[in-house]
Amino acid sequence: MSSSFQYRNKLPTLQSACEEEGNFLLRVEHQRAAENWTRQLWDQRGSIVDLITEQLSLSKDDACKVLLPQYWPEGKFNVCVLVEVTRQDTTTEKFVFRCPMRHMHAEDQYPGTIDEKMSCEAASYVWMQENCAEIRIPHLYAFGFADGGHFTHTKHMPFYQRIYHNFRRWIYRSLGLPLLSNYIRNLSAPDVGTAYSILEYIGPDMGQMLSITWERHKDDAARQSRLYRGLAHIMLSLARIPQPSIGAYRFDTVNSTITLTNRPLTCSAMVMENSGTPRSIQPRQTYQSVESFTSDMLTMYDEHLLHHPHAVQDEDDARERFTIRMLHRAVSHHFIRRCWRNGPFLLQPTDLHQSNIFVDDAWNVTGMIDLEWMCSLPVDMLSVPHWLTDCNVFDITNEEYDRFDRAREQFLTAMDKEAETMMMEHDIPITQNMRDTWLSKGAWFWACISSLDGWLWIFEDHILTKFSTDKKLVASLKQASALWQQDVESVIKRKVEDGEEYRGKLEALLSSLLRSQ
C-alpha cells in the first residue's frame, strides 16, 4: 500500500475522501503510473549511463552508475534518477537525471506537451544564467527531447566548438537577435526514448531545503528576516527586466535561442490538463493585454469545473459554484488596472515554496531549484508568498489573516531594502504596487486565478466582501447561475450524476485497497 493513498497512516474513509476537493481516483491512478515509470527508468539504467557518459564527456576510466530507486528524490511532475560518477582519481560526484512523467503532463491527451515543458524549463535556466547570475541554481549540463534532439552545455564540448559558439553569441548580441544560449545540439548522444535534463546534484555545501528546518525555526524572528531578504532578492531579480508579453520563455531547437513565445505554463494549468480538462490556452499563445489573459484563465477554470467528476456535492452546491464562477468574471474589470493592462509584464516564480529554496543554518537563502513554472505575468500577480505563516492561501481568514498581514508587511519592508540596491530596468514601483493590490483586494482576485482548489473560499472570504456585507448574497443570486452556461439545468443534472458515479467508483476503490492491506 502506497503511503500517498493514506492519511495519518490509514486509508481515508469514504466521507473524508468525498470531502476532498481533488480527485482521489485520479491520485491513485497517478501514483501507480509514477511507480511504473520509476520501474521503467530503473530497467533502462544501462541506457541512462550511456547517455550521461556521452553528455558529460566522461573518460573510459570514469565509472558511472545509477543509484537504487530508494535514493531518488521524489517529485510531483518528474522522476529524479540519482547517478553517481567515480572519477579515475577516486573522487565521486552525483548528478540528477530528471525525466518528466507522461501522465502528469497530459502527454497522451496532448502529444508534445512533455517537449513543450522541457523547452520552457531549459529556457528558464538559460534566462537565469544570463540575467540572474548572482542567484545560485543547479548547473544544467544537458537536456533532450522526446523527439530525439539532445543539447549539451558548451563547457562540456570540444574547445573548437566552444570558440565557434562564443563567436556566434557575439554576432547575435551585436545584431540584437534573440538570446543565443550556451547549449548546442549533440548529434552523438544516444536516445533514451524520453525527454530529460541532466542537472547538478545540490549537496550540503549549498545548504539544505528550507522545508527541512521549517517547523523548527519558522517562528524565529532573526531567521525570518534573513529569509525574507533572500526571497525578496530572488523575486526582484527576476522582475528586474520588463517583459513584452504574458507567456513563458521557450528554447528553439533549430537555433538554440530562447524567446518569449510560449503560453504561460503554470502548475495549475498542467494539473487541470492531466485531469481531463480540455486545453484552453494553446502552446504558442502569448498575451499582450491583461484582459485577454484573464478571460482565458477564467475559461480554463470554468472548463475544469465542467469536466471534474467530483466538482460539486449536490444541486445546491452546483448552483453556488456556478454563480461564483459567473461573479468572478463579472468583477474582473475592477481588478485590472489601466496603468499595467498592456504591459510591461514581469517574470515571476509561480511555484516558489519551502522545498524549492535552499538556506544555510541561519536561513540565509543560498539558492533555488526547480525552474519549471517560471512565467511572465501581469504586474499585479506578483505577491507575497502565502506560506510565510504556514497557512494555505484559502485559510487566511480571521486570526490567520492578521498573522499573515503582519508577515506580509515585514516581507515588503525587506523587499523595500533589497530594491534600494537593485538596478531595475523599468519604473514600476513593485513593493508599492503589492501594497496597493492588497488594499484593493486585487491580490485575492489574482490568487483565485492561481489557486486550483481554493478559488471558491478565496472569492467568498475576500472578494465578495469588497462589494457587499450581505452573507446571503450568493444564495440570493443562485438563479443568476443560468447566465454562466447555456442550458444550465442540464449542466447541473450532469454534474450531480458525475458526482454520484464518482462516489460509487470511490467506494469500490477504497474497498479494494482495504482488502489488499
Low-confidence stretches: none
Helix content: 40-55%
Mean model confidence by pLDDT: 93
- End-to-end Cα distance, whole Å, is 6 Å
Radius of gyration: 24 Å
Major β-sheet profile: 7 strands, antiparallel
Shape verdict: globular
Assign the structural class, choosing from mainly alpha, mainly beta, alpha/beta, alpha+beta, or little secondary structure: alpha+beta
Number of helices, counting only DSSP H or I runs of 4 residues or more: 16
> Within the largest sheet, what's the order of strands?
1-2-3-8-4-5-7
> What percentage of amino acids are in beta strands?
5-15%
- The counted number of beta strands is 15
InterPro entries: AGP_Transferase
Protein name: Aminoglycoside phosphotransferase domain-containing protein
